[in-house]
Amino acid sequence: MCIILYFRFFFFQAEDGIRDAQESRGLGDVYKRQSRRRNYDLSKHRTDQLISYMKGMIGHSFALRLMTATALDTFAEFEDLVEEHRRIPETSTLRHCAPSVGTFFTPLPLKDAFSEYDHKYKVTLRESVPPSFNELRHILNLAQIMAFKPTDPLRMMTFDGDLTLYQDGGNFQDPKLIRYMMKLLSAGVHVALVTAASYMEKPEQYEQVGVGVGVRVGYKQHRLGL
Predict the structure, then answer these.
(1) How many other CB atoms are there within 10 angstroms of residue 14's CB atom?
(2) Which end of the chain is more exposed for a tag (fewer CB within 10 A), N or C?
(3) Catalytic residues
């Protein structure tokens, strides 16, 4: 008997150049490989307008040394703004303050997410380092996770590729993580990889990063029960 399994594995191309100017992860080698080359020292960096807006708002509390007293209320206000945008996306406050803001598919419990993040990292107790772009991104991600109910079926899981799953220009070879990915695929979950690398007309070069090879190896290991 022959059993054929169909897996869903995607690559998502991260939009070129959208990152915080001071807190870029420095993917220099990745951008050198791109066909569209840009001088990042001379070009203005594009940033996520929503996170930049949030960073500016929370920055006022930090500058006035009021984080302990007002940070939770500020994130509660962000939470209300998200709900308003879900109701009236074309005329919302967020549309005015962050014109590129996208669609929110679920409510975001940002107050609870910040409270949990602050409990671990003590953001409100810091005196010299304000909340960073990446920290706000983590809080948004945490809020999205907290918005899911245990009964919601998992349909897709995304992974950040460069400098997370593998080193810049390196190979994805972590056998443990590959096995987990294969379990997700076998359960019918879509798996997506977000990468800053762009190979344009040569998609086969994604396999040179090692992801395609890793998935095939992982599938063999999964079939053999390794």
Answers:
(1) 17
(2) N
(3) 160, 162
